[in-house]
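Problem: given the chain below (296 residues), write out its structure.
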Amino acid sequence: MTSAVIALGLVAIVIVAAVTLGVVAARANLNSPTDFVVGGRALGSVLLWLLLAGEIYTSFTFLGAAGYAYGLGAPAFYILCYGPVAYIIGYFLTPKIRSVGAAFGMITQPDIFRARYGSSALAGLAALVGFFFLIPYITLQLTGLQLLLSIAGYGLVEPYVAVAVAVALITGFVWATGLRGTAWASVLKDTLVLAAAIFAGVALPLHAAGGWSAMLRAVSASHPGWLTLAPGASPHGVAWFVTSVLVSAAASSCGRLQRRRFSARRAAMRCGAMRYCCPCIVFSSCSCSSRDLPRC
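Solution.
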């Protein structure tokens, strides 16, 4: 009981701090739909970087990706690969999207279709497609939230009640603060998430196995073939890996990220995108080039 109260208390403190930061930062900057939806097109490179990081480092980072790696092994490396590919594309594409958005007053993805093709029906269809494709993503995040709260609360919190409260809180927060509030809340949230990810990726292998190389050797010894991809068109093989990287990169380069692109200052856009891209490339290269990692 005491452990559950402490854990849930820490969760509550983080939530209250993030909500407070977002509300205070956004309260004087909601004078128009542009301010609300795309932050007045005035987010600098640091806020943009954190906002983009918030789209990647979610509950999926700690539950979905970890479970995928534990259950399938090497195929999980596609998660490390599609991010750099997507943000290399974004480095060249995003400034153009931002410029066109500012020139034509676009604030959502359907606005692109309306401006380009002059069709409100096509814009409405794009909005519906975007809505329905967001449902699985939101379901994934809420499932992760449910699991995290169940674990943190040691079964003390009813999962469905926790999710219902979370949905109400998120909806109210976004309604009250817009994109700018979300960006400032990401300052706290993503700092904690990145710190936890770095701790899990560095401290845990050192503690459990003595380092990354030792960890990879131990995995190879206990699960032969676990760190190699199956050849050709085998299930979760090389062909699956390549197509998954390309499809995921393409999906990450559009859709729900459009409003983030519209929100940046022109001078900050390419800088912010590249600052995000470089750590992904470096980490992926280091992870996939270890001398102890078997080759396909």
